[in-house]
Amino acid sequence: xxxxxxxxxxxxxxxxxxxxxxxxxxxxxxxxxxxxxxxxxxxxxxxxxxxxxxxxxxxxxxxxxxxxxxxxxxxxxxxxxxxxxxxxxxxxxxxxxxxxxxxxxxxxxxxxxxxxxxxxxxxxxxxxxxxxxxxxxxxxxxxxxxxxxxxxxxxxxxxxxxxxxxxxxxxxxxxxxxxxxxxxxxxxx
Length: 189
Known about the structure:
alpha/beta, Rossmann fold, S-adenosyl-L-methionine, Isoflavone-7-O-methyltransferase 9, O-methyltransferase activity, S-adenosylmethionine-dependent methyltransferase activity, COMT-like
């Protein structure tokens, strides 16, 4: 995932920098070694970045001067911030678990952002878009089968995502395709 994170980080900061407009603090939930958070911190020095991941994941990770690391479980607590980032995290979880995770993220932005200005940024697959080529649709089916076999989870269509978002207490969202089947989804309370 490290090389994928590096590639995706470069793409996101280059092509989708407007996502970070107005953001002064960001928590990368499930951010591993901090590749994505480090790229964001370098590209947007005004954004204070941190990574939340399990203790065994961040143990021994080389700290970057502009990224803090916190050990914790996203099912229990997400630190307060203007924005919470979930890159390729939710497709590993059931719909019910996604609602739990996103509820914790909504609580974090409610505590960390000014007067409802926070957001959750998801980088994940949104399958079934009519704008996708046949090759992308075939890759989506393959990825969906892998997620079912490995994690008892799935890739999701926009309507599946919308149901999860509303159940987690979000009022609206915006989807921006960025690469193949991956999109940036911005969630707002």
